């Protein structure tokens, strides 16, 4: 089971929106040097919605190449068309990814049976283990615990990223899920509590900015060292909040550019961070001692 801090990696872009592969390579090294346990390439934080399929696979392949087996690479392979999600998963496997992360379909508003059949079809077709991703704040559809647990019976579905921030849901899942079914928080603000209550790690936006601190936080929380985890988390609370002051990944990309790690490019319909929000994000960077 993969545990700890897994980064939901941004996709660096130049001002014209082209993927900046040199910056991407630097980011991968940054994470490996600072203890990140796994890299999610072209998840939703990686602007998967506005990358073409060819770009998507190019980025996954590049991250696999740069990581060179030193950390696991989890390819974003979701979509609101089941056939498209299957294709992304199959091509990500060909590109060398270790696992897949597949988000609940957005806009369609499938029923719970529709969600089950969607993910079952993806898992049936995949040569790689699949992590489910429930983020109703972005997809509208909310995969119930019962549906997630039904899917957990599939031998190729190995975990769930839950971004609801609902600790009670985690407690129910941990009680009823198979022991080897991984539970990851997709909500940085509640991630520490999630892990202290039995979660196996965080698929994190904050880790883009503070990978060392997130790695140490996860190790402490998973190890039951609550006081140590709280001390680290206190410094990161500003990032947990302000990286969502505007839609993700707008603030995260601004923060990384402010740290001189990537250029300022982002793709429409997302726009650069507003000037009014810059001071709050910068203050969070300083609180976390990364600037």
TrEMBL record:
Keyword Lyase: yes
Keywords: Amino-acid biosynthesis, Cytoplasm, Diaminopimelate biosynthesis, Lyase, Lysine biosynthesis, Schiff base
Site location (L-lysine inhibitor binding): 49, 80, 84, 106
UniProt enzyme class: lyase
GO molecular function, one term: 4-hydroxy-tetrahydrodipicolinate synthase activity
Enzyme Commission numbers on file: 4.3.3.7
Gene Ontology cellular component annotations, sorted alphabetically: cytosol
Domain of life where this protein originates: Bacteria
GO term, biological process aspect, one: diaminopimelate biosynthetic process
Pfam families for the chain: DHDPS
Localization (cell): Cytoplasm
Principal cellular location given in the protein's record: cytoplasm
Keyword Amino-acid biosynthesis: yes
Part of a proton relay during catalysis (site feature) positions: 44, 107
Catalytic activity: L-aspartate 4-semialdehyde + pyruvate = (2S,4S)-4-hydroxy-2,3,4,5-tetrahydrodipicolinate + H2O + H(+)
Pathway named in the protein's UniProt entry: Amino-acid biosynthesis; L-lysine biosynthesis via DAP pathway; (S)-tetrahydrodipicolinate from L-aspartate: step 3/4
List of residues binding pyruvate: 45, 203
Subunit composition and interactions: Homotetramer; dimer of dimers.
Family: Belongs to the DapA family.
The protein, known as: 4-hydroxy-tetrahydrodipicolinate synthase
Annotated source species: Chromobacterium sphagni
């Amino acid at each position: 089971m993969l545990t700890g801090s897994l980064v939901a990696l941004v996709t660096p872009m130049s001002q014209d929106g082209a993927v900046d592969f040199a910056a991407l390579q630097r980011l991968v090294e940054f994470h490996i040097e600072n203890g990140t346990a796994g890299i999610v390439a072209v998840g939703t934080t990686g602007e998967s919605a506005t990358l073409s399929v060819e770009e998507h696979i190019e980025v996954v392949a590049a991250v696999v190449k740069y990581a060179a087996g030193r950390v696991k690479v989890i390819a974003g392979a979701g979509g609101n068309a089941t056939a498209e999600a299957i294709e992304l998963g199959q091509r990500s496997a060909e590109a060398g990814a270790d696992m897949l992360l597949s988000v609940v379909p957005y806009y369609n508003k499938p029923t719970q049976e529709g969600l089950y059949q969607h993910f079952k079809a993806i898992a049936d077709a995949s040569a790689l283990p699949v992590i489910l991703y429930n983020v109703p704040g972005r997809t509208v559809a909310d995969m119930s615990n019962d549906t997630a647990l039904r899917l957990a019976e599939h031998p190729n579905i190995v975990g769930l990223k839950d971004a609801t921030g609902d600790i009670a849901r985690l407690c129910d899942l941990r009680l009823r899920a198979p022991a080897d079914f991984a539970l990851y928080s997709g909500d940085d603000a509640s991630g520490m509590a999630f892990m202290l209550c039995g979660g196996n790690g965080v698929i994190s936006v904050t880790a883009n900015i503070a990978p060392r601190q997130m790695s140490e936080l996860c190790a402490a929380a998973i190890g039951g060292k609550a006081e140590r985890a709280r001390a680290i988390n206190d410094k990161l609370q500003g990032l947990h909040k302000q990286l969502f002051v505007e839609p993700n990944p707008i603030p995260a990309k601004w923060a990384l550019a402010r740290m001189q790690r990537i250029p300022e490019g982002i793709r429409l319909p997302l726009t650069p961070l507003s000037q009014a929000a810059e001071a709050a994000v910068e203050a969070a960077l300083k609180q976390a001692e990364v600037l």
